[in-house]
Specification:
Blueprint (H helix, E strand, L loop, with lengths): L1 H14 L4 E2 H11 L5 H13 L3 E4 L2 E4 L16 H8 L11 H13 L4 H15 L3 H11 L5 H12 L2
Antiparallel strand pairs: 1-3, 2-3
């Protein structure tokens, strides 16, 4: 998507740097450039990292491409559609590869008295907050609710390693 590339390129050109902290990026596109709210800026940042337009190295960010080669339109500002896309959480619906494990983890949560909907909401929140795979988020949620997760750790590792 060119809009993502334009967003990253316009920001880094404006800053005149090729490396910034996450906070610099969030504050830059929200407060300095007034493109989005700080909360939305965090979502846009996550999307840029997920889509490989930005590389996260420790607490620092750098563009994954030469920002000077991007033909950014004059007066560019990210559209509301980009912000909406950034806000969409990754689906907690299991795919073909991970369906068995997630089903097992969901069943474990239900056996602890947790409702299916609450499980999905909690796992999505953990996944978004920590930027981890869905299986890891589910294991953390179960562990935090007192479940013994040792039997699932190896299976989660194998599932994630296949990707």
């Amino acid at each position: 998507m060119d809009e993502l590339k334009f967003t990253a390129a316009a920001f880094f050109r404006n800053k005149g740097k090729n490396v910034v902290t996450e906070d610099e990026f969030v504050m830059g596109i929200s407060m300095d450039m007034r493109w989005v709210s700080p909360t939305d800026a965090k979502d846009v940042l996550s999307l840029l990292i997920r889509e490989n337009y930005l590389v996260k190295d420790g607490g620092y960010l750098r563009p994954a491409f030469d920002v000077h080669t991007a033909d950014v339109p004059l007066g560019f500002k990210p559209s509301n559609d980009l912000v909406l896309k950034a806000k969409k959480p990754k689906k907690a619906v299991p795919d073909v590869q991970t369906g068995d494990l997630l089903s097992e983890l969901m069943a474990k949560a239900e056996s602890l008295g947790m409702k299916r909907k609450d499980f999905v909401v909690s796992v999505n929140a953990i996944q978004k907050r920590l930027n981890v795979d869905i299986e890891v988020a589910a294991l953390l949620m179960l562990r935090d609710n007192g479940a013994d997760i040792h039997e699932y750790v190896k299976k989660a590792y194998e599932t994630i390693a296949k990707r």
